[in-house]
From TrEMBL:
The keyword Metal-binding applies. The lineage of its organism: Bacteria, Pseudomonadati, Pseudomonadota, Alphaproteobacteria, Sphingomonadales. InterPro entries: Aldolase_TIM, ThiamineP_synth_sf, ThiamineP_synth_TenI, TMP_synthase. Condenses 4-methyl-5-(beta-hydroxyethyl)thiazole monophosphate (THZ-P) and 2-methyl-4-amino-5-hydroxymethyl pyrimidine pyrophosphate (HMP-PP) to form thiamine monophosphate (TMP). Pfam families: TMP-TENI. Mg(2+) binds at residues 91, 110. GO terms for cellular component: cytoplasm. The gene is thiE. This is Thiamine-phosphate synthase. One of its GO terms (molecular function) is magnesium ion binding. Its cofactor is Mg(2+).
Amino acid sequence: MTDFTDEELALDPHFADQFEKGFRPPCQLYLISPPVIGDDFVRQLAEAFDGGNVAAFQLRLKGADEEAVARAAEPLQKLCAEREVAFVINDSIALAKRLGADGVHLGQGDGDPREARKILGPSVQIGVTCHDSRHLAMEAGEAGADYVAFGAFYPTTTKETLYRPDPSILSWWTALFELPCVAIGGITAANAAPLVEAGADFLAVSGAVWSHPDGARAGVTAFAGVLGKA
Ligand SMILES: Cc1ncc(COP(=O)(O)OP(=O)(O)O)c(N)n1
Ligand SMILES: Cc1nc(C(=O)O)sc1CCOP(=O)(O)O
Ligand SMILES: [Mg+2]
């Protein structure tokens, strides 16, 4: 654990200089699977992809054992490859390695990003949960993460959450660092605008897509109006 405060890090020009300032692409959608999926989920995911541009898909099956996640992953990973959507495994560096996933998402208790990099190599995307903490985000950047995730910005029934960042953490991050930031937690097409305006590079969304009353395709399409409008 690096021993310095948020304030010290924020003022450290060397740390900030690790990331070149430059062009930020428009905010994109990062789709998170429901925590439990049925046999029909490949079709639902294809429908979601038909609804608009999705940059990444995270397979997040909480409580399922590795074999079950690996079985579920096979057709989903194939579909993602066909649609040029990055396929990200939640929680498990070992499973991401075994499947040849495009990325792994690590919570604060899911493993060390430096260890993940050693195991997965330079081209696999490593994301790190940073809750509402500038300090955790700077540590993740220093450890070689490819993105940092802040949340939960809004109440959500998908996961029990303890943190509620202000959108200004996104503008603070993007003003200092080129490393992409992800906003997550209770995000809908109706409440996403402040996050996009604050500089989120990705909106990570689950419930608003999978529980959309008109289906997952409409759930993705609903975000078209707010994405990239900062
Ligand atoms: C993009 C993204 N951000 C945050 C999380 C949450 O990760 P974690 O804190 O490890 O919680 P679980 O998702 O494992 O319950 C995420 N999965 N994806
Ligand atoms: C998986 C997850 N992580 C969060 C965090 O705050 O780190 S919130 C969350 C749930 C995301 O699903 P929904 O879009 O349905 O709220
Ligand atoms: Mg996790």
